[in-house]
Amino acid sequence: MRTLLTFCCLLFVLTSCKEEKTTENTETTMTMPNEAFDTLLDNYYEDGLKLNPVSATYAGDNRYNDQYPNTLSDEHILKRKNYYSQYLNDLMAFPDSTLTDSQKMSKAILKWEVEIALEDFKFKQRELVPIDQMWSPHLSVGQLASGAGAQPFETVEDYYNWLKRLDGYTEWLQSVKSNMEKGIAEGYVLPKSLIVKVLPQIESGASEDIENHLFYSPIKNMPDSFSDEDKTTLKEAYTAKLNDKIIPAYKSLYDFLKTDYLPAGRESSGIDDTPYGTAYYNHMIKLFTTTNMTADEIHKLGLSEVARISAEMEKVKEQVGFEGDLKAFFDFVRNNKELMPFTEPQQVIDNFNAIHETMKPQIEKLFDVKPKTPFEVRRTEAFREASASAEYNQGSLDGTRPGIFYVPIPDVTAYNTFSDEALFLHEAIPGHHYQISLQQEDTDLPEFRKTLWYSAYGEGWALYSESLGKELGLYTDPYQYFGMLGMEMHRAIRLVVDTGMHTKGWTREQAIQYSLDHEAEGEASIISEIERYMAMPGQALSYKIGQLKIRELRAKAEKELGTKFDISQFHNEVLEPGCVPLALLEDKINAWISANK
């Protein structure tokens, strides 16, 4: 019904716009917002939340906290196809001449969004390989279940909402098994090296130790305000849900993965060894970089960047007086106990907070617009710490849940600090926390744009933020500066090994060795990273591609504007639209440069 009403509104507005163009007041259609178009954007966002209720929870919208759709079902797949197709048709009914500049940007973004989503349906990889060790719903649901994530556990109703949501999640788990059985038959399977990493994750969900089960965590942390009767009833309900649904579903999936799926797993590392894998990888490049670059172009760019950054690393090696080649210096940095000074996990957290304090006096010079969303640093939860990387989880749209920089500390005595300053700039301030929070807080953006995520823009901004360290009073220690170079090298290596594995026949071991030869990351971390690229082809390309575009645009602005260049204003212009495809960002910055010459 809503789609029909929207279509009727479109017809009315388009007729009105055509009539207005015959009058002298032609600017009305370009300077005044088109209300019907704004309604379309609102409807797109609202209908999207209904299709993706967990996304609503992450956004702080609690209307759908009891729902978990089976995204693997034919019914839900068809719903998503129809959703994107209908909104693409509705969107294209609006000529640009009827929209303001801001609305034209929203139209261009939404067009890109729905077209790339529709293209994704051409491939079966997501449907028939629905889980992996890095990105899967079983990991995000585990975080929600722990009580430390976005799912609220403050009222009795909250607790029952989660129980109901688990019914949908159990259905999804059952579909994972049936879809992976189809995947075996059709040649869509994970590499064996990834399956062995998934197995312990699923096995933990099959544990019959109720008291220590992750999904029982909310019961152990019930608010004191709950009545004794409610506490007893909830305890019984959660115990029953675990015994009757959650544990059996996990056990069934675990047995299948171990007995049937692991023997059928691939020995190869690249996605090109699956049906239509090359076409799928090209699609993933476009999805994650928002460009039309080819795998060969990206591979060559990666080799060039690795060589450039290696030369910068040589300078730091000479500065600290290290005798030996760069590879030996990597080993020295990896194993230098002076760079592993901590004995308690809280010391790691305190160190990041100290970095924040150091840069505060300088941040004003580079940023005159800062987010209101609160921020904090936390240790990664124990259940996922062993395989996790440092990450940022956005705060809620209403500001009640802070943005959180999660740091995994599985062994504090082995925690190496040499990249901490760059890591804070990337994951926290002014990286992900500034970019995502400002986007969510911008009342001028339509709702659908407040939660959009394009990896090339978002990760590109975060990697660009690492380069601001010296301007922010950091990187005075050569090892911290080397840490920044190391993190940039890490992203440059990704261009080489990701394309290498997925288009050039590189093995997992070959990619690991290339990384060990060119960066100071530890071997365990590198193995985890390479397996991450195997699990999500193309995603790792986005960081460097986005960073290079932002650096290119800054250099162009500095050159063409000369003394008129204002770094804080440039940052405002980059951050103001929120996440956008890189071509749209480039158009925006070019227009800003032209207007300020």
Short synopsis of the structure:
This protein is 64% helix and 2% strand. With 597 residues, the protein is mostly helical.
Keywords:
597 residues; mainly alpha; 4 domains; 3 strands; 64% helix; globular
Task: Walk me through this protein's architecture.
- The protein has 27 helices and 3 strands.
- It has about 600 residues and is mainly α.
- It folds into 4 domains: about 120 residues, no CATH class; about 140 residues; about 260 residues, no CATH class; about 50 residues, no CATH class.
- Strands 1-3-2 form a 3-stranded mixed β-sheet.
- The chain is globular and about 65 Å long.
Itemize the secondary structure elements and their pairings.
Elements: H1 2-20, H2 28-31, H3 35-51, H4 53-58, H5 74-91, H6 101-120, H7 125-128, H8 137-145, H9 156-186, H10 192-205, H11 217-220, H12 228-264, H13 277-289, H14 295-319, H15 326-335, H16 345-366, E1 375-379, H17 382-385, E2 391-393, E3 403-407, H18 420-427, H19 432-441, H20 447-450, H21 455-466, H22 478-503, H23 508-518, H24 523-535, H25 542-561, H26 567-575, H27 582-596
Helix pairs in contact: 1-3, 3-5, 5-6, 9-12, 10-12, 14-22, 18-21, 18-22, 21-25, 22-23, 23-24, 25-27
Give the uncertain stretches in residue-range form: 1-29
What coarse outline follows from CA principal-axis ratios?
globular
What order do the helices and strands follow? Answer: HHHHHHHHHHHHHHHHEHEEHHHHHHHHHH
| Count of domain modules | 4
- Summarize the main sheet: 3 strands, mixed
Total number of β-strand segments? 3
**Content of β-strand:** under 5%
